[in-house]
Amino acid sequence: MFQIGQPSLISLYACRGCAEHFCYGLPMKLLVVEDERRMLKLLHRGLQEEGHTVLCATDGIAGLRLVQNQEFDVVILDVMMPRMDGFEVARQMRRANNFTPVLMLTAKDAVPDVVNGLDLGADDYMTKPFSFAELLLRLRAVRRHFVSSQPVRLRVGDLVLDRCGHQVHRDGIPIRLTRKEFGLLERLMQQAGTVVPRDALTQSVWGKGPTTEANTLDAFIRLLRRKIDRPGCPSLIHTVRSTGYLISSGEP
User: Fold this and answer.
1) Does one domain contain both 185 and 118?
2) Which of 105, 180, 181, 193 has the maximum number of C-beta atoms within 10 A of its C-beta?
3) Which residues contact residue 13 at a Cβ distance below 8 angstroms, ignoring those fewer than 6 apart?
């Protein structure tokens, strides 16, 4: 039975080993991809009442487009959908090195379908009908596991970013970055070797507020390059025209 349960207690670790970053009641940004309108409406309303930001899509292609251009804490993904099914959405996400947690919802409960979904990179799998209280617990679990499993240090070539210490070094030399610059670099390094769309970069650093001017992102990228691309060191941040940026120790 689909029921609104008791308010959930969302607990996240900002990074492994940093207990001081353990926080409670933090809302998440969720994407729900579900073609059944009634189910979509119930999920949207229930999750919003829990304090989460919820975006919705009614088919796989629209859902994948949102995932490619925005940041989400968890994607709730139905399997049987028109245009592109949930399996293919998960496959394309992982192929693009997008490891946002995926919780699959489906009426399919055959073991091969469950195995297929998990093998494609889904983090959890729930079959319909389900209780809303259990859904909240599963969302908390997949998000907590994802955050706590993230590496404390990110490395691209000789560039190292320490998430806990909020420090950046290149070839052992410390680099002082502003909060925005650090966030921008961290987002690029999370998907090293993969193009990060401009919209995704802007949203991850500046959030959902008023639209950020396109040249603001470009200006911050220029500042970041000046700081990390020291004389004698190869350039790490590359521009992909009309698409976004990527960070790589080699040629893009």
Assistant:
1) no
2) 105
3) 21, 22, 144, 147, 148
CA distance 87 to 78: 9
pLDDT mean by block of 10 residues, the chain; 252 residues: 31 33 61 94 93 94 91 91 91 87 81 76 86 90 75 86 87 89 89 86 71 76 89 87 87 60
Give the number of domains in the chain: 2
Task: Indicate if 114 and 233 belong to the same structural domain.
Answer: no
- Does one domain contain both 111 and 21? yes
- Same domain membership, residue 118 and residue 53: yes
* Amino acid occupying residue 209: G
What pLDDT is attached to residue 66? Answer: 93
Judge residue 36's burial from the number of C-beta atoms within 10 Å of its C-beta, 0-12 exposed, 13-18 middle, 19 or more buried: middle
CATH number at residue 87: 3.40.50.2300
Please check whether residues 34 and 116 belong to one and the same domain.
yes
pTM strictly above 0.85: no
Mapped onto helix, strand or coil, the DSSP state of residue 119 is: helix
- Select from 126, 148, 170 the last residue of a domain: 148
For residues 162-193, one letter each, b for 16 or more C-beta atoms within 10 angstroms of the residue's C-beta and e for the rest, the string is: ebeeeebbbeeeebebeeebbbbbbbbbbbbe
